[in-house]
Automatic annotation (TrEMBL):
One Gene Ontology CC term in the entry: small-subunit processome
Pfam families attached to this UniProt entry: Utp11
Gene behind this protein: Utp11
Organism: Pycnonotus jocosus
Keyword Cell membrane annotated: no
Organism classification: Eukaryota, Metazoa, Chordata, Craniata, Vertebrata
Region of interest: Disordered: 1-25
Main location, first listed in the record: nucleus
Keywords for this protein: Nucleus, rRNA processing
GO BP term (any one): rRNA processing
Highest taxon in the source lineage: Eukaryota
Cell compartments where the protein resides: Nucleus, Nucleolus
Name of the molecule in the record: Probable U3 small nucleolar RNA-associated protein 11
Compositional bias segments (type: Basic residues): 7-17
Family under the similarity heading: Belongs to the UTP11 family.
Length: 253
């Protein structure tokens, strides 16, 4: 074989390239390559140094030494995990605690309900439920009566007092007595603002009473779940209601 032929064959050869290591296998160690002996040597000496440090730490350790983590940890699947402490409480004690919680919430709910009734009495039940302005319906027999209907005459009052839903005296009462109460517009505006604040407070108390009722229901549901009776969840728990379970029927003796 001539030198020219060998030179041409060598030129046609493809250069050799090392195969790259996949990223998913980097945790298994360095890939065996021809040119990575320095990296493999560095990795080997690093592991050897770590083993020597652990051996020295084990030799220097006092075998009689005790620390609480020895009894508070356990090995699961080759991994040390901390044992979770168990509550030293019986199911009867849990039921009693739930009962006390329900009693406290019910006591606060009843107190809130009494305050709501007191506020409603002070406000004369005007829009107490927050449903907006009420409507007063009048029934007539014909379309002509609808067109000729005079609400002031029907209510026996003056037109200026028709828009009132409370404290609306009749014409006979106005002839007999003078109008009582403030008539100054500034004072009337102040009273209207105070009445609005009272309605806002009433609405807040109604919402709080509803929230306490939902809380008491959820506590009662958790108390019922302490029984070992077979149960099936019918509806999930929401912000406005507790979870609903269907319990297996058991005949009482």
């Amino acid at each position: 074989m001539s030198a020219a032929f060998r030179k041409a064959a060598k030129a046609r050869q493809r250069p050799h390239r090392e195969r790259a290591q996949p990223a998913a296998r980097t945790k298994l160690g360095l890939l065996e390559k021809k040119k990575d002996y320095r990296l493999r040597a560095h990795d080997y000496h690093k592991k050897q140094n770590a083993l020597r440090a652990l051996q020295k730490k084990a030799l220097d350790k006092n075998p009689d030494e005790f620390y609480y983590k020895m009894i508070r940890s356990e090995v699961k699947d080759g991994v040390h995990v901390i044992k979770q402490p168990k509550d030293e409480i019986t199911p009867e004690q849990v039921k009693l605690m739930r009962t006390q919680d329900i009693k406290y919430v019910e006591m606060k709910r009843v107190a809130e309900a009494k305050k709501i009734e007191r506020l409603k009495a002070e406000l004369h039940l005007l829009d107490a439920a927050g449903s907006g302005a009420g409507r007063h319906l009048f029934f007539v027999d014909s379309e002509r009566e609808v067109q000729e209907f005079d609400i002031a005459a029907h209510l026996d009052t003056v037109p200026e007092l028709v828009d009132r839903v409370y404290n609306r005296p009749t014409i006979a009462t106005l002839q007999r007595e003078t109008v009582k109460g403030p008539t100054d517009p500034v004072h009337l505006k102040k009273l209207a603002q105070q009445r609005k604040n009272q309605y806002d407070l009433l609405r807040q108390r109604i919402e709080r009473e509803k929230a306490m009722f939902v809380i008491s229901q959820k506590i009662q549901t958790r108390k019922d779940l302490l029984d070992k009776t077979h149960k099936v969840k019918v509806k999930k728990e929401t912000t406005t209601g507790p979870a609903i379970y269907k319990f297996k029927f058991q005949r009482k003796r």
